């Protein structure tokens, strides 16, 4: 039995949360062009503030309760990105000038935290 015989479409459905291109301006922003045609510009300060790691957001249990307190950063210098790397085919990790690099930003998370157009973050 083939996929066509079973009534399923064998063609992959494009994931709207899949980037087709990314450009990191190390002192300014991360720009992502998404597979659905959308372009998002993330100011670096917004991304650093929204870091999804347990140290920044607090570790949570299965019910969503915070287990560990959020660690506030005391870094008050300019936020820059030292570099970035892909994590599998689902996320990006950014190495920050404040020596932080444990946050893994999944592409679906990045779509959730898109800055509002015209709003300074």
Mind explaining what this structure looks like?
With 121 residues, the chain is an alpha+beta fold. It has a single domain (19-112), classed as NE0471 N-terminal domain-like. Helix content is 13%, strand content 28%. It contains three helices and six strands; from the N terminus they run E-E-E-H-H-E-E-E-H. It has helices at residues 44-49, 54-57, 107-112; strands spanning 19-25, 29-34, 39-43, 81-87, 91-96, 104-106. The strands form two sheets. It has a three-stranded antiparallel sheet. A three-stranded antiparallel sheet has the order 4-5-6. It is globular, with a radius of gyration of 18 Å. It starts with 18 loop residues before the first strand and ends in a 9-residue tail after the last helix. The mean pLDDT is 81.
Q: Can you tell me the number of structural domains?
A: 1
- The CATH topology assignment is NE0471 N-terminal domain-like
User: What is the arithmetic mean of pLDDT?
Assistant: 81
Intertermini distance:
53 Å
What is the CATH architecture term? 2-Layer Sandwich
Q: Cα-atom Rg, whole angstroms?
A: 18 Å
The arrangement of helices and strands along the chain is: EEEHHEEEH
Helix and strand layout, with pairings?
Blueprint: E1 19-25, E2 29-34, E3 39-43, H1 44-49, H2 54-57, E4 81-87, E5 91-96, E6 104-106, H3 107-112
Antiparallel strand pairs: 1-2, 2-3, 4-5, 5-6
């Amino acid at each position: 039995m083939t996929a066509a015989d079973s009534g399923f479409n064998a063609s992959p459905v494009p994931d709207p949360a899949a980037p087709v291109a990314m450009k990191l301006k190390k002192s300014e922003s991360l720009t992502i062009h998404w597979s659905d045609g959308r372009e998002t510009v993330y100011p670096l300060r917004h991304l650093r503030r929204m870091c999804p790691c347990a140290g920044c957001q607090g570790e949570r249990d299965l019910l969503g309760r915070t287990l560990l307190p959020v660690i506030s950063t005391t870094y008050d210098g300019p936020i820059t990105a030292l570099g970035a790397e892909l994590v599998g085919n689902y996320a990006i990790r950014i190495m920050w000038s404040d020596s932080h690099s444990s946050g893994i930003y999944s592409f679906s998370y990045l779509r959730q935290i898109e800055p509002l157009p015209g709003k300074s973050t």
